[in-house]
Give the backbone structure.
Amino acid sequence: MDKKRIMVAMSGGVDSSVTAALLQQQGHEVQGLTMRVWDGPVDVAVDARRVADQLGIPFHLVDLREEFQQRVVKPFCSEYLQGRTPNPCVLCNQAFKFRLLLDQAQALGADYLATGHYVRVVQRDGRYLLAKGHSVHKDQSYFLFTLTQEQLSRVCFPLGEMDKDQVRAQALKMQLAVATKSDSQDICFIPDGDYIGFLEEQCPVADRSGEIVHVGGQVLGRHAGTHRYTVGQRRGLGLAWSEPLFVVRLDAAQRQVVVGERRHLDASELMVTDCNWIIAEPSEPLRCRVRIRYRHKEAPATVTVLGEGRCRVVFDAPEKGVTPGQAAVFYDDDLVLGGGWIA
């Protein structure tokens, strides 16, 4: 890449800090941009600004707390209360990092927006394609299936060829202020991981209790809210049964948690809505591999476009734990073909 004006989305972590430092070393005109989305116990802008000052680059802070509440937090809560299990990181990337921040970067005169994601952008036959990061353990392509051609043409991912150990070593070599900072493990707006407490604080309701029902119709117990469960869950059911039981379906309208044996988790197909295609939308059934959760092994399947953003995914062999609200992402080897939301 020739010398460019690049805005780096800086979160105050090691990955985005090394991203900024590497681009500066390569001779680009670099600036830092941090979005404040939540009033948490740690101000992400503090470490981001420290690194920007250390590198001697301009730093910008944009307050997006109100927009984040409306576009990420409220849908997150709403999905859970409807018996779905949402993925707020995909929503945040879609609505904020690669829309609002990208527009802000352009308004500030940048040619590109760079982030610390472990993914790559490649060009083929005049089209921008999203590829997995080289690091198997850190690849984050699953979270970025919503990227459009226009967005892919304006972003760069310097860490796509690296693994975490290499990034950490670079941070130490560069003596960055956050070199020894630990990685964030939780949803940014629920740093303690207590999503149940968060949901009940955000949307207080006197009574969400209901029945725990076996797939055969037997009532086995009661629960304090369907939002406390997710498909595939085994722990915490508190049920006595001849075989291990798993959550196989949530019916928020009826306040039912439906449980069954492991075989009841099998699903031979699923429906996907709000599909985004990074390749040209296929006109014929597409053979590919499908990932239904971030830490899930991709499974061979046939994807058929149905129109109006909908697709049917038929697996070669049944998959366990298909979870409404999660993303289904389509791959051809390392390339992301597209994806959508499990209905």
Remarks:
- The chain has three domains: 5-173, 206-260, 266-342.
- The two ends are 40 Å apart (CA to CA).
- The mean pLDDT is 95.
- Residues 88-107 form the longest helix (20 residues).
